[in-house]
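The methods section describes the discrete structure representation at length, but only in general terms. What matters is that the chain and its backbone geometry are given together, residue for residue. Nothing conveys this as quickly as seeing an actual entry. For illustration, here is how one protein appears when written out as sequence plus structure tokens:
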Amino acid sequence: MPAELTFAAPRRSNPPRHLADLSPEERGAVVTDLGEKAFRAKQLAQHYFGHLESDTTTMTDLPAASRESLGEALLPTLLTPVRHITCDNGMTRKTLWKAFDGVMFESVLMRYPDRVTLCVSSQAGCGMNCPFCATGQNGLTRNLSTAEIVDQVVSSARDLARGEVSGGPGRISNIVFMGMGEPLANSRRVLESVRRMTDPVPAGLGIAQRGVTVSTVGLVPAIEKLTAERMQVRLAISLHAPDDELRDELVPVNTRWKVAEVLDAAWAYAAATGRRVSVEYALIRDINDQAWRADLLGELLSGHLAHVNLIPLNPTPGSKWTASRPEDEREFVRRLESHGVPVTVRDTRGQEIDGACGQLAASEK
């Protein structure tokens, strides 16, 4: 991260080294240090990324005498599912994960007729302190490692491939970094995890970069760094207000990088990649859902390569923040469309299962 970003997680012991933390060359070096031939690293990666298998005792193409040591060196257990809860007739499944040090975070698997999307966490907790967000209210515990991010995908893909999710066997097609945490406050590991997800098997999972969305509240230097990577991932800006006065309250990092700066960085990303920017906007009753704010947002976005994703707020129990009235939502959509701005209202899922990020982890604590 650039030096001016100071959203560091508290220092803790590091997760065990894992194959997904390493490049193919680094994996080979670990294997040869064990006295094995370098190609064993590729075999392990083929099992993990290609067959979604982490248990070296089942890997019969490895020497029986080496399986345990190879597993300890490159495929340690990183995540343990605490519980799975489902709704939407089983088409939505939230998983609460426990890491090696006991920290907890969540992922959500959402099955649609034409795709399967996994929402992953990049941090345990979040340091952005947005008042309407359950995760933000719990604070930041630590950054997740590259492998902890990737293993959410591999573990969920394994369950899906084995038919353990409603709808029969399937494959994950889309990844969204919209779970717990601010992805670009952990940008190095997030970018590494995107490479693991999108590199072809056996280097990675082989998911298309265009199927990956990275969200941010607007850390401008990190957006610029992402732009320089020239990836084909979609950038999502969690805007939530078009005016600085309100956004300073809803998204406190706005006191550092204002709306105009965030959007300028987003337009530079769109120009460099040719990819449309998704502008995320949680509609909050009587807070940011006024018609005049829809007009202001429309004026800011008109003529740019952008799409607004309106999100009916998934309320946190006991919070004053709640979803907009249906008539106000409809008027907000109408006003944006009148400015020629494409807009969709997100198909909200998971309200019956503490669907907002952080609710399940908080309840477990």
